[in-house]
Protein 1
Amino acid sequence: MSKEINVPASGRPFKNNVTYCVGTGRMGLALQKEYIDHLKLVQQSIRFQYIRGHGLFCDDVGIYRECEMDGKTYPFYNFTYLDRIMDTYLENGIKPFLELGFMPEKLKTGDKTVFYWKGNVTPPVSYEKWAELITVTLNHLIERYGREEVVTWPVEVWNEPNILFWAGTMEEYFMLYDYSAAAVKKVDPRMQVGGPAICGVETEKWLKSFFEHCIKKDSPLDFITRHCYTANETTNCGHYIYHTMNDPTYMIEELKETRQIMSDYPRIANIQLHITEFNSSYVPLCPVHDTDFNAAYIARILSEAGEYADSYSYWTFSDVFEEADVPKSVFHGGFGLISMNSIKKPTFYAFEFFSKAGRELLYRDDHLIVTKNDDRYVIIGWNWHDMRDNKQSPDESYVLSLPAIGEQAILVKKEVGGAHANPMQTWSNLGKPRSLSGEQLAILQASAEPLQTDAKLFEQEGNYKVELKIPCNHLCMLEIFPVCDKTDTYLGYKQEEFYGME
Amino acid sequence: MSKEINVPASGRPFKNNVTYCVGTGRMGLALQKEYIDHLKLVQQSIRFQYIRGHGLFCDDVGIYRECEMDGKTYPFYNFTYLDRIMDTYLENGIKPFLELGFMPEKLKTGDKTVFYWKGNVTPPVSYEKWAELITVTLNHLIERYGREEVVTWPVEVWNEPNILFWAGTMEEYFMLYDYSAAAVKKVDPRMQVGGPAICGVETEKWLKSFFEHCIKKDSPLDFITRHCYTANETTNCGHYIYHTMNDPTYMIEELKETRQIMSDYPRIANIQLHITEFNSSYVPLCPVHDTDFNAAYIARILSEAGEYADSYSYWTFSDVFEEADVPKSVFHGGFGLISMNSIKKPTFYAFEFFSKAGRELLYRDDHLIVTKNDDRYVIIGWNWHDMRDNKQSPDESYVLSLPAIGEQAILVKKEVGGAHANPMQTWSNLGKPRSLSGEQLAILQASAEPLQTDAKLFEQEGNYKVELKIPCNHLCMLEIFPVCDKTDTYLGYKQEEFYGME
Amino acid sequence: MSKEINVPASGRPFKNNVTYCVGTGRMGLALQKEYIDHLKLVQQSIRFQYIRGHGLFCDDVGIYRECEMDGKTYPFYNFTYLDRIMDTYLENGIKPFLELGFMPEKLKTGDKTVFYWKGNVTPPVSYEKWAELITVTLNHLIERYGREEVVTWPVEVWNEPNILFWAGTMEEYFMLYDYSAAAVKKVDPRMQVGGPAICGVETEKWLKSFFEHCIKKDSPLDFITRHCYTANETTNCGHYIYHTMNDPTYMIEELKETRQIMSDYPRIANIQLHITEFNSSYVPLCPVHDTDFNAAYIARILSEAGEYADSYSYWTFSDVFEEADVPKSVFHGGFGLISMNSIKKPTFYAFEFFSKAGRELLYRDDHLIVTKNDDRYVIIGWNWHDMRDNKQSPDESYVLSLPAIGEQAILVKKEVGGAHANPMQTWSNLGKPRSLSGEQLAILQASAEPLQTDAKLFEQEGNYKVELKIPCNHLCMLEIFPVCDKTDTYLGYKQEEFYGME
Amino acid sequence: MSKEINVPASGRPFKNNVTYCVGTGRMGLALQKEYIDHLKLVQQSIRFQYIRGHGLFCDDVGIYRECEMDGKTYPFYNFTYLDRIMDTYLENGIKPFLELGFMPEKLKTGDKTVFYWKGNVTPPVSYEKWAELITVTLNHLIERYGREEVVTWPVEVWNEPNILFWAGTMEEYFMLYDYSAAAVKKVDPRMQVGGPAICGVETEKWLKSFFEHCIKKDSPLDFITRHCYTANETTNCGHYIYHTMNDPTYMIEELKETRQIMSDYPRIANIQLHITEFNSSYVPLCPVHDTDFNAAYIARILSEAGEYADSYSYWTFSDVFEEADVPKSVFHGGFGLISMNSIKKPTFYAFEFFSKAGRELLYRDDHLIVTKNDDRYVIIGWNWHDMRDNKQSPDESYVLSLPAIGEQAILVKKEVGGAHANPMQTWSNLGKPRSLSGEQLAILQASAEPLQTDAKLFEQEGNYKVELKIPCNHLCMLEIFPVCDKTDTYLGYKQEEFYGME
């Protein structure tokens, strides 16, 4: 049975921060051609403002070096690759949300590393040298890109120090934070700095301790960062890691909880909260990322997260990513919105659709959002189901009555899921090739496009009436905008001579 | 009720000349950027070998000139534009099928013209100067493009001399032919020359007279050319010209009749027959060209025409065309496979699909053709109905049994018609805009893509079983090729962890 | 002997309107690919703001049409091509400076035409229909491109009505002006309209009469337009038209004279003066346009014209131009800054160099201009000589003392003339081919580049010392800007290990 | 004083293998966008056939992996990156000359590595697994690229096993060779395999032992490979490594010596000899690579090396290279023909010029080569001097008398050195910036172009007379080909109206 909804003529602002930031594999990957191809695709359709990833100070970007000459050791800062990476970002209309980390070889105090690409996670041999690295790097960026530009780049201190990404103690992280934040502010007091970049382990303890530390030490703190993943524990199985998902509102609850903790500290209560990583699964080997389920599931999160967070950076925009080794196939469970070979995954469209949402929120429930921009409706619907029962869930059905914005309007609908914009299914039908031939690629890219249809709407008693069915694991967007019918200007136009055209 | 068909394992050669040649608006238009954009699109997907149009010797290409100096008149041949046009063709992998005409200003004997662009159709003031123009032009082309290349370019003498395109008599045309053919052969005896390029008026009289003339005069004649349009008479109405269509087999019958006439003359019987123009309607202001009906209708012709004709050149590849004035809107009833703004019309896909047909013909009826290339089936279906009864015709339904070419295969289906690859309908829903905004263009280009779906086929008792329904005014292509299932190489792969993927 | 010049540290504003506007062949040519290629080249290097040419209302653009239906005649305005042309301009960062003309076939009162492409120059059959054509066209442009954009497009009424471009009387032109200006202002009073677009024949009479007419009738008049060509009478000779040139100051004198006439009318005295066409020769078949002489000669004009005129629109940016028939060869004496096949002529660089001139004028004489922008000197020098004496003129030699803008600076010099950026000479060495092979094109494009050299300048007593020699028919630009010497940051750098590098 | 040379009308074949192969940084770098940009540049101008570099089996390409599941270990071969790299090569018209190495992490027997990027150089833990890796990889390549293609890719076993690139003994290398060669031949006996890929240390011992081993064991050996560098010992100094050069004939002598050793073994004497690496300096931190000296110096080698070697692969085509860490500046002494930011170094042109040399050798001395192709002369001259004396060496001066190939010819000269095509000098004048602004890049790219001039030659007594001066550290190419003078076809052409054009 359909839900009947009378959409009101006006609403309240839609807090939509979907395009604020997106995640990326380590920054050194931005030298790769395929990475850049994917970035272009994402920016053409979605236009994120910021990009955040690890590895700014890792040795593949290669900034911190030391050189011996005549018996003396000189520090040397090599910005060849950093400049190329930043050029690439800015040329593609995206700015860095800088994450300070990990530890350069020459500054490390131990050999603990994370990932296939071996990011060193030990505290610095000298906090002064670490601070100097930050200052020199930011000043170099200012010299190259201009002060007014660089002060708009937020700076986050380290990544997930509450788990294995930091080989020191919590107190050592706070020391790292203090040195880092001071170094940032020394470059320009307008630069925004924040932390603690934790994932969801001992959240309350870390947040409270961090807040209290900053307040006590009067350390600069312009925004709070944390990560949210909604998956349950993992099961390793050969080349895959599997796990089940919590409900998408799990993430909304985490955001509320974070805001709650923040609200206890007047200095903290109203500053920005950036979710610098989020996704369903937190491993790049889990098939969920490649599914149409994920698109519908993430859409539910996108419909509400902006109420609590100033950004929520999907981890990550591309499958050009090496944390768990070189990708082994076109579809391999990677985080990306785009798979190897530039194929858009279903979740890509969750971001594209929300990037087009209107500024005004007229209606929202668990499966539907109705927004408006000037004289255009943008409606997004989704219906996720994890299929653990091996059964399609029922359609979500709606009959919408929308205040008319003109005598005639066109409704353009884009659908994702099932037989469309679901390239992993087509890839499976192709036999699951690891690399693609030209023909396979053409089939997959066509299969990755949403199903677009359109229809004419006519005002009836001041409204448009729209029926909508959202099948299991589908995501859709409806754009409705007025059209000016020019048929009268076609001299001699006779409907019946158009072979069935309406 | 479905037609059940047991497709045999082998058949006979499919006589498919669909990519041999395509028509174009007058050659001077090849200087335009939009023309070139359309040519690129057509060549990417269809790769025609030859292109034929009017206007080689018209004054906008500007070859024949005279210059006065010191009281004397010198002929001057200006190849600036011709070279640019030919460069464009060759860069896009297409060769000219040269049509000699119309008459340059300086060689005309009267003022009769055709078209908005005023092609002069009068006999030459001097047949010797006309012949000289041909010789000089071909020799110039040989100098620029090489003799071995240019001798592969067929030459047709004039256009439709049996109607208003020729202000002289039939005998005068024969004289023009003799001078022209001799001029061509003088350049290189290997160059192929033909005529009489007539349309379907007094066909028998013209063909017989022409054949007898050439035989009697021993005039060179390497191939026969004529035109075929299947429309009934026209009704003018404002900016449109309407008419109804004959059955597509009307054209097949015309081809048979032409072959019959040819067969009476031993010297003629077995030479090539080129249909240097064909289409449903013969006016560039008739909506039929823009419809899904036309795609299905032309497909019927393409399925059989190769049995009788060595080529059938669709008139024309692009709506960049000015015979009836500058196009007035995106869709205006133009001949093109591609409309203004680079939007592919339904009929574009009739040519694309047949360009992919296999070399072996396994089955053919009035709505379906089954072909094969090595280990790949290419099946094309169509179902045309002119909608004069305002009712959808019934689906054409098939159950095909195809000899298996591997344990597993993928079936990729592309559908044209109705809600897909039918951009004129979407354009109508948009209010029929004459020029397009960027957003309108994006919607239309997406709407112009065929609906692609895919499925896995499994061998059952040596066969694949395929059910196919072709709705009213739809055209479809099914490609079936074996796949190698690599699922076993995915260590730890568990079907149930893929959220419903099969 | 060298001229020694102590350049002062500051000067006065350089009135430089070089990039305000450029001329074009008739607007219908903007559909051509090669035209667009040339426009891109010009805009990449020079970035003109406006483009002005004939033919807005000519029948190849095809705006004004009439259609008969059911015994009635309907006017029809076809904007298909106009929109494509304007899209092209705006996509390339250039706006139209609209010229209203010539007369559409359906509105003409006679058969007088100009040019190979037959622009009809007769008065309208109805001044009301003419005004309606203007209003409908401008309103269409506003609908498509936005009101705020279109009101920045100036509108000039007709072209050179004082000679054969207008088949009516002067008074009839004034009537045309009044109707046109009123139609423009009816669309939006902010739109700027002007005239009388005369060439240098009976200048004083036309200007005075026109001013007095507008004042008397209170006709809108936002700016004055006229044309300036500096050539003497023509000699026709086969495919060429030859003539000699006046001194470049001839044009400066014409500008002063025009300002003088304007100054007699208080309402007119201080409005804008746009030279909507200028060049040396006024025929597109005169070799002077292709020479290095012309670059140096035009540079002299560009160095001073801004003192008197708000714009001076070089006629024209490209040899894609058909007033005197289709171009007959790569170099044929056309007006363009760029020849067929996208080869930059020497004069191209006169515009490029002046487009880079500084906002501050420090020094100017007959062969040199020294300008400054912030911390950068831009110096342009030229030395023209018409070679009628078959002898090279002596070099112009300078020793400049420039106030230093840093301890070290780089001087980058670009030279045009003689063996460099003089492709007509190379083309002559190639045997004067009419169309080019790929290799010939590559040689010519390389030969069309200026000779670039660079040198280090060091401050000496607060100045840089620069010696400059400008040979006969050379043009050069020197850019001087400070450099930060980073040599010290190269650890272990030893000058003597660099094989002669300084 | 000039050398007078009467060039004969015919000569002998010029053994020119300059385009056979070029070196590259490790294969994993081929994923980078800048690497691909440089490859495109090189292929546009030079079109090498093969490319050879290290790192096929290194862990950044990531082929060899092992995976645990259910207590068992499975080998896994990941070809994701390899396929992308090979696609890139083939798309750019270049094939791999495969080098088998270095050792994957999972197959290593120790921790010895080379380079900043840590290539492991220890023998395999199992020679069978190593052979399996080869076989699986080559079979995969055949599956993807086709057998007929892949059998044209030569295979070299390891790199410089005679120094620190091999942690085993000579005998262990021979064992590696035997296993490898057998694995290659097992894939397809037509595949060509060779070694020992040594550098110039204990050459004679290694070659003889290797030849004797292969003969004795009847191991497949299709070609011999070695490396040649002409530098003396190194001096480390901060970020640079300096050394002086031997005369370029040093390399020619090494080639002769190698051929001499080969000639002692009948089975070996006449097989191919590939110099799979050569250059002046063998370190990527030596300024010589960036100089005009190097262009002239390498040209001397290129003029003769083909007499003795079937290929000589310049090490390397691009400064995208990381053996000695990430490049620290635009010019940093890297091996590449192209520096960071796509700036062509002088030596680029040595390869471009020799790639255009004619098939017929008419004259050769220490500074000049005269070749001919059909009706075109290609003359290359060079004059190297190491500037250790701080003085320019004298010009090499020639007066050439060349048998005429037509009444008129054009001479097109391209010069490299000094003020032209010497971008490191301009970069030094710019203050030696490490990263470039857009303006700096434009200046440098223009400064990197050769100086092109042209002149007309006229036959005099059957010859053309050409004077040529080659200044110190210059390289030049002269192309002479006949032109057809079309001046007569220009009606009304008057030389004196062309403002000094000849």
Protein 2
Amino acid sequence: MIDVKWIVPTSAVGGPTNGLVGRIDLGLDPDLLATAADALLMRHPLIFDQTRQLALQVRPGSHDPWYESCYQEKDIAPETEYSELNPELRGTYFEEAFDSFPFPLFRARLLALDARTCYSVHRDDTARLHVAIKTSEHAPFVFVERNEVFRVPADGNAYLLDTTEVHTAMNGARELRLHLVAGAAWDAMAMTDELGGQSN
Amino acid sequence: MIDVKWIVPTSAVGGPTNGLVGRIDLGLDPDLLATAADALLMRHPLIFDQTRQLALQVRPGSHDPWYESCYQEKDIAPETEYSELNPELRGTYFEEAFDSFPFPLFRARLLALDARTCYSVHRDDTARLHVAIKTSEHAPFVFVERNEVFRVPADGNAYLLDTTEVHTAMNGARELRLHLVAGAAWDAMAMTDELGGQSN
């Protein structure tokens, strides 16, 4: 059983999660995460205007591992195919972070949101996991139609957000916001009896 | 008595308004407003990166009427001094719009928010009136600490927002958002018996 502590309930019926926002305790060290991210971004820059990204998981044998999964879902392979840790990350704190999840991840990326920018309001196909690496109280998720504002703390834990609801994220601070974002390979199983997201 | 229809209540005690968001029915024509704004912006461009502005009210005899009030509050004259309609706007639909308010305005400006940008999270010194000229369902106000998301409709009415609460606005759409924003000269009187913002 995967232990998800639901923080914000959902009104959706039959959605991929049992809540709008839930926490999965990982106990990662936020400082080590930030240091690992700084070291990585010195070697591999973030690309794409505003939605700046770097891929942490790849398809086996990819020729463009750092950026291949960083396009819109309609322009890339099925998300679950990006399932291997980028070989260059072996032995780094990112590998430890990935191993701390109680289920496999897919299409994990670093997503940076520049100061005073926001994403288009949209829905994703699946729920998403977020680990905040650099953030502030001024960089919330906004579930526009649900009237919910949620700030993911950089506390070394993962937050499961039901991003199949209409949402955006914004950064009203002066510094960049940096999140590790991934799909959870248990998504499709979350509503079964065996592996349901536990509601606490 | 000024008739404010409170839409979102407030928990603040002794604040400048009796609610977080209220509507003041003006019955303006949204199309005429948009047309007047388009004509104006062809003559006078918006300036300032991200928080792009154009002043509609000026100090008497200003040498820089269109932009003088468009800096941070700490860098301009007291806001209430920007109280005269910019002479070039006489006879336009803006003059009609200003006259439709049941109280005087000050420091009225056009504020544009570019696609996929947001303001810094902040508090203002006073409540603000907003008339949406161009907007979408994806461009809400976010009261970050109050967990309230509010979308000002472009319906020809004014919305009073208690912007002394921590807030921002974001534009998660692909088109520019354009609002007429002003201070209400009844702010200081709003909590008196004579001119209290009426709670409906």
Protein 3
Amino acid sequence: MINTLYLPELREMLAENDSDGLREFCTALHPARTAEFMEGLSPEEAWGVLDHADLSLQGEILSYFDYHRQVEMLEARPPESVAPVVATMSADDQVDLLGEVEEETAEQILACFSVDDRRDVLRLSNYEEGTAGAIMTTEMARLSENLTAREALKELTDQAEHLETIYYLYVVDDFGSLHGVVSTRDIVSALSKPQKHLSEIMETEVIHANVLDDQEDVLRKMADYDLLAIPVVDEELRLVGIITHDDILDVVVEEAAEDAYRAAAVEPLEETYLRTSVLTLSRKRGVWLAVLFVGAFLTTFALEQFESDLERIPWLVIFIPLVISTGGNSGNQSATLVITALNKGEASVRDWWIIMRRELAMGLILGLIMAFMGMLLALFKSPTPYSALVVPTTLVLVVIAGTLIGSMLPLMFKKIGLDPALMSNPFVAGLIDLFGIVIYLKVALLLLE
Amino acid sequence: MINTLYLPELREMLAENDSDGLREFCTALHPARTAEFMEGLSPEEAWGVLDHADLSLQGEILSYFDYHRQVEMLEARPPESVAPVVATMSADDQVDLLGEVEEETAEQILACFSVDDRRDVLRLSNYEEGTAGAIMTTEMARLSENLTAREALKELTDQAEHLETIYYLYVVDDFGSLHGVVSTRDIVSALSKPQKHLSEIMETEVIHANVLDDQEDVLRKMADYDLLAIPVVDEELRLVGIITHDDILDVVVEEAAEDAYRAAAVEPLEETYLRTSVLTLSRKRGVWLAVLFVGAFLTTFALEQFESDLERIPWLVIFIPLVISTGGNSGNQSATLVITALNKGEASVRDWWIIMRRELAMGLILGLIMAFMGMLLALFKSPTPYSALVVPTTLVLVVIAGTLIGSMLPLMFKKIGLDPALMSNPFVAGLIDLFGIVIYLKVALLLLE
């Protein structure tokens, strides 16, 4: 919901050219809240307000706008006047933003950057999405190991404004190789002995990420070690970037949403649900819905094989949905448990045998429970008590088929290098529908003929 | 996988009473890694190693053990000797840990705490799970607004060891009410004017959480404002706790896993998948599997009503699974999209009308696509081309039913105060199975008789 509280006031101040008022507005609140209150303004109006803040504050407020608004803003003014603002943003935000605007606009903006800044952006944009390189930014504190605590604090004070975080300071040698890390906390504590060199204070076992690491691994490290930030190095162990707590939090939240979409057979959305057009959304849903639909043709072919049998034993039909949905549900449970365990690093493909045994056991237990309940229902619906046995027998087998297929398929996918989450709910359910039909009718024919 | 690299060495050092070696081991690495290397030791062996570290390092290393191992450790020695170690841990970790051990052991350990520490623990453990109070801890920096920058830095240096974070410092008045926040960065930058009072440096618009806030809202604030930590206040705006980036990251990761479980109709696990016993897991799965199973009885009753019709038009049977799985898949997509949008704060119950219109449109588009493909298949399988029309007609209606039910049910649940994620995949699919059967056969009878 757009916050319209300040809009009338802001428009009034713009109309009256109330510079003091607008400057006050820009600096009064946290940039994220300032951005929030500006949501309803047109790009021209928004620039009119931002003009009253210094360049780096402009960049900060801009970085809190929704992406599509940032893009509108960048395209509302000539590249030359927009570039200085973008230049104040941190490199990872620059990369993301310039990746969204028109290519020509991005090039023109980049052309206005300093050589160093432009090089940083180009290098960062080359990293593959989902790797540490694609999340990291380049504004981290690099201190020489020869500095004393006091000197380090002084250098820090000077640089503080431009750094992503001053709380973890990376200690490097003359070649830029990462040698250690020292926290501002450590420096502050060491001020009582101000002549100590960083090389004596620093922690040499630095938990770090490699620029090509998967973002899941980066998350795991940061979560396990409670890290505020993690340094990123290249193959030669040279310090090339930093990933901070806020960026990894954004990654986790986004990943969780993407996992949820994929588990429902929806291509992950780029924008929010309400902001994605019906046509785009239909495409993202339609492609997988169609795949599943065609896959379900197999159930039609399978039932066709048994059509004459079903004509002979018509009461069997009424249990078809019950049987296949129960198999699908148990398979879905197994798939979700295994995929979640794989994602959290709590299990690996090597555990397949243990997992299979456990799932077999659970399939048996759950199958017997469902079979018991199913038997009660079937006794009311089948012509003879003996023929009712078809239902519980099928249920046990179908639930076991569900747990086995549901647990093994994600492991197989992971083994061959695919994302196990692709083999989730709808696909597992579709496969088990097929097995369920065949099992049900084979059991029926076996018992009743 | 247990890291066994150091185990032989550690056991040798224990056997030989190599104090220097063990002390070196405890202090050499990040406590999390030290804990990792100690994973394979028995509780007695582990205590033997930890005895060579000072109390607060013992507590730190202990806090990185898996929960069930921490519990083993606490129960392996008398409460009086364990209490001093637990006392060094941060209050939120104490609360979580003491909540896991036997009640009697927890009481005995608490009895050894100082009055203040014990009060903190008891107060924190009273907060309902899922609220800010249940996540927060109490070791935050509280500085008086009358201190100068220099005095604040001095006080910080003194307290630094005991604080959860020294990077955000909360400025309070004499009653403990939160008046502002100042970052160590700000203090460091202000050192050039060391006589400035905190009241002049501090930010008075402090983004904060209330102790009863839902953890989702806390996460939203921390993610939106890129906060390293958020202060928690009570109703009188008194500062009572702090939630740091690492704790909220843990919450997010845990929440994502719980959402995934619930969406598959599994009661969320307390332990990891492999560590949860087959019986416990069967219970967590069985309860919902049974609910869904009984719900699916309705499909049996529905098909019974149409049993004679199916005997008259037997070829209809082969399309039943195709029809109901397509409806279920489209409903699952809608439910997931809406639930995710609600969770991320991108949509609310008030948007129901917009959502319904969009879902109706998508249901039509997707339904027509599926209908087209279904028509092609049906032409091959039905006795006459005209009768084949039953299938595409049903598919359009069933997909629309899916999108409407799938999107509206989570909204209804949220409206009446329930977790919308409860109305997810398996339940939506079950409901649509029922609708699908009824729609299919009604359409068939309409067109063919």
